[in-house]
Design a protein that fits this description.
The complex is a heterodimer of chains A (235) and B (299).
Chain A lengths: L1 H8 L5 H4 L2 H16 L6 H17 L4 H8 L3 H13 L3 H24 L2 H10 L4 H32 L6 H29 L16 H20 L2
Chain B lengths: L9 H25 L5 H14 L4 E2 L5 E2 L4 H8 L1 H19 L7 H22 L4 H25 L6 H32 L12 H22 L8 H15 L2 H8 L4 H33 L1
Antiparallel strand pairs in B: 1-2
Classes of the chains: A mainly alpha (235), B mainly alpha (299).
């Protein structure tokens, strides 16, 4: 599974992994905004960003090629639009979409492979994302893998027992979704009881408190500023 | 339907982000007021459920299969405000972990699917008091309005799409909307059988509001539909200004004059008009949710 790979990568100890998540989010946004506003004429800047992101990935001791491959999941969809643009007589527009879309995905994968999920959510909270939303995201992530496993097990069980059901397939699938819901509901209730028993009062305690330090400030200044400055300079 | 980064023009993603951020903040506050912290695990698990349910393939005829999107189903299970937050959490997780939708485009995706998608689904459900027809319409309206919004945003951004492709994708959206309606109904009926009382059926009040709101939301998406369903001369800028001009002139006329007199740049004009169209739809939704809440509290 794709996210399992991210989970593995995000546990590194490089300088990028050790930065405060809020600093990494700010740098990511600087990259994303600069990339999103690139026009076909700005291709050298696109190359510069590509080089910067690749060097960052390498410096974070991540497998550069595999990180880039992970970003390539956005390419098939972008290719379709590139072909449309080609036939509409504006091939450079289509290429720009492909480049922007892939570079943005690269930036996101880099953020996710240097930041663990709890750290990322802590960073979002520092940046004043609604606490309620962050908590829902936290629980969603915690139970996502469990339920995905359950769904695929149910799918395997159904197809090995029932085979092709023809017109009844639809009802079978609906019933499977219903069972999955009932199990999720039951699981949610028992989770809640267990957590209340352990003193849950709305917030999960953190064992590691993150405080921004000078290195984080340098990280933001050293990356976000040049990225934006380059974009502004090449108007 | 998840728009990745790199497709939307700067104005479109800025505008949708600016709309989505305060909307999510308001909805989070409202959902938090209704749900005490004990329900947060439940909401997280419901989000994970919709995520996992998207893995169950439903046969859609001719060997193709489809899956649930779930905005309407969440709306019927949790109520609209909480459902919008859970849907936002799902979209953010998909963008971060699966590169399914972009981070800057997250505002657009949240607006299409988590805000308009959930409310467009909840209104017919509430209006028909949780009947089967209401459930079907919930799925149908939810998916159709989200898909039409996504398509319009791409067109306003100037993404090239040949006319035939536009008609095909529109037909595909209609089919998907029917499937989503059927799925929402089938899953909700299965849920009621396993766990009676899990749907949040509104019992009193708000009927007139709901109907007025449903009609307004339909009108809004119909405007977009009519506007986007004009494939002739798509490559030209004229059409794109035509799209936005149409959509706004259906709802407000002063804007047409504004567009003609103050904004001479066609690119700027279409962005402004498109964004204004979104603002109108957004205001309708806010008014609806406020109206629904007011009548709900009064009853």
């Amino acid at each position: 599974m794709r996210h399992a790979r991210l989970e593995l990568w995000s546990r590194g100890t490089s300088f990028a992994h050790r930065r405060h998540p809020a600093a990494k989010i700010v740098v990511t946004l600087a990259f994303l905004v600069s990339i999103a506003t690139l026009q076909p004429a700005h291709w050298p800047l696109g190359l510069l960003y590509f080089a910067m992101l690749s060097v960052l990935t390498w410096a974070a001791r991540l497998p550069v090629l595999r990180v880039q491959m992970a970003a390539s999941v956005v390419l098939p969809f972008a290719t379709v639009f590139a072909i449309f643009s080609f036939f509409a007589g504006a091939p450079e527009k289509g290429l720009a979409i492909m480049a922007r879309s892939w570079l943005s995905a690269f930036t996101t994968v880099l953020l996710m492979s240097t930041t663990s999920q709890p750290d990322l959510l802590a960073g979002l909270e520092v940046l004043h994302a609604p606490r309620f939303l962050v908590q829902v995201m936290q629980f969603l992530y915690r139970y996502l893998l469990v339920l995905l496993e359950e769904a695929s097990a149910m799918r395997a069980a159904a197809s090995s027992r029932a085979g092709k059901l023809g017109s009844r397939e639809f009802r079978r699938a609906a019933a499977a979704a219903g069972v999955l819901f009932a199990r999720s509901w039951g699981r949610a209730n028992s989770i809640h009881q267990a957590m209340t028993a352990r003193g849950f009062d709305g917030a999960i305690p953190r064992f590691r408190v993150l405080r921004p330090n000078l290195a984080d400030a340098w990280y933001v200044l050293g990356l976000a500023l040049p990225v934006i400055a380059a974009r502004v300079a090449l108007r | 339907m998840h728009i990745p980064d790199g497709y939307l023009s700067t104005r479109v993603w800025i505008a949708t982000d600016l709309l989505a951020v305060p909307a999510v903040a308001v909805l989070a506050r409202r959902a938090q007021a209704k749900f005490d912290h004990h329900r947060i695990p439940l909401m997280g698990v419901m989000g994970a459920f919709v995520f996992a349910a998207q893995m169950i393939n439903f046969p859609a005829g001719n060997g193709t299969s489809s899956h649930l999107v779930g905005a309407a189903l969440l709306g019927c299970l949790l109520g609209p405000a909480a459902a919008a937050i859970v849907m936002t959490a799902i979209l953010a997780t998909q963008a971060l972990l699966f590169q399914d939708g972009g981070l800057l485009a997250l505002g657009a995706n949240v607006f299409n699917m988590a805000i308009v998608g959930v409310f467009a689904g909840y209104l017919p459900f509430a209006a028909l008091r949780g009947s089967r027809a209401g459930l079907f319409l919930a799925g149908f309206c939810s998916l159709l309005s989200a898909a039409v919004l996504a398509l319009s945003e791409l067109l306003i951004s100037g993404v090239s799409m040949p006319p035939t492709m536009l008609s095909i994708s529109f037909a595909w959206f209609l089919v998907s909307a029917v499937i989503e309606g059927a799925l929402t109904m089938a899953v909700a009926v299965a849920l009621e059988r396993i766990q009676p009382g899990c749907l949040r059926k509104p019992t009193t009040g708000g009927r007139a509001w709901v109907f007025a709101g449903g009609a307004a939301a339909l009108l809004g998406s119909a405007g977009w539909m009519i506007a986007s369903d004009r494939p002739d001369g798509l490559q030209s800028l004229a059409l794109k200004t035509g799209i936005s001009g149409n959509a706004t002139s259906i709802i407000t006329s002063p804007l047409g004059a504004y567009q003609a007199s103050f904004v001479s740049n066609p690119w700027l004009a279409k962005s402004v008009a498109g964004v204004a169209g979104l603002v109108v739809i957004y205001v309708v939704c806010v008014a609806l949710s406020r109206g629904l809440r007011a009548t709900g509290e009064g009853a």
